[in-house]
Amino acid sequence: MIVGIDASRAFVKERTGIEEYSYQIIKNLRGELKDRQVVLYTRPGGDEQVDFDLPKKWQIKILPWKYLWTQLALSLELLINPVDILLVPAHTIPLIHPKRSFVVVHGLEYEFSPESYSWRSRLFHKFFIKKSCRWARKIIAVSEKTKNDLINLYNIKSGKIIVIGNGFNLEASQNYKTLKVKYKNFLFFIGRLEERKNITGIIKAFNIFKNKYNYKGKLLLAGGQGYGYDKIKQAINQSKFKSDIVELGFIDERKKWSYLKQADIFIYPSLFEGFGIPILEAQSVGTPVITSDRSPTKEVAGDQRILVNPEKPNKIAKLANKILKDRELHTDITEQGLKNIRKYSWKKSADKIGKLLQN
Length: 359
Fold this sequence. Notes:
single chain; 2 domains
C-alpha cells in the first residue's frame, strides 16, 4: 500500500495556519505510518525545508510547476505513478486521484465573509472545495462548526465527515528560550492581517482601552498582510494612539513564543475562523486570552469568561480591563487555559488521521 500526501503547504519557509497544520500532521504521522510506503509531494525547494528525519520507506518527490500545481502537476504525477491512498491536508484534491482520497477542510470562511476574499479566491475555493468534498472517501473537518457548515451549505452527508481537531506545539512552547522584548506592557495578536481576523475591530477596542481605561501599553500585530490590509492600515493611521500600534510583520517561532509569554493579553476576536491554534498557544504559556464567542473559537477556548462579541469593541476593551484589574480572575483564567490545552496535541490529531487512512 502506497500513501501519497500533498506536502506542498507543509515545507515552506514561512508557515502560518494551514501551512503549520500540514507540517505538524506530516511530522506526527511518522509514528502511525512508519512502516508504510509514503510519498510526500512538494514544490521545488520544499525538500530544503524538511527539518526532521523521515522513516526508511518515506520519500520526497518534487513536482516542478508554477501555476495550478495541485490540478496539473499533482494530477499528472498520480496518473503516471498512482498511489493507493491520498491525503490532502489543505482543501483541494487533484482532478486525478485514487478512490481512497481524504481531504482536510479547515473552514468555509469565504462563504460567510466574501468581502474578505478576492472574487478569484472565492470562485477557486468554492469550486474546488465542493468538488473535493464529492471526490473524497472521507472528509476531515477540524471543528464541529466546519462539519455543520459542510452539511448545511454543501449538502454533504454527516457520515462522510470526521471531526478531528487541530493540535498545537506544546513542546515548542516549553523549549524555546524566551527573548526579552522591548515592550513592557502590550496586547498581542498573531495571524494574517486581514479583514476576517477582525483587525480593525481590535484597533477600535485598543483605542477604547487606551482612552476609557487608561491602558499604558501597546498593541502588537504580528503577521503578513492579507486581503483587506488597506482598510487595516487606514484604521491604524486614523487612530489617536497610532504610535502605540506596532506592526511586527512575519515573526519566527522564537519571537512568537517570546511575545506570547510576555503579553498582558492575547487578543483574538476573529469574525470567521477555521479553528484558532494561537488560542491554545497563548494558553499553554499562561497568557490570558480574549477571543470570539462564535464557533469554532468558542469550542477551542474552553472558558466562557474569555468569549466576547467580536463586533463590539467596547465589550472587548471592557473585558481586557477586567482581566488586568481582577488578579483573581486573571489567575483563574490562566489556570483554566492550562487545563484546556491538555485536550489537544498534534500527535493525537495525527494518530487519528493515520488510523482513518488505514481503515
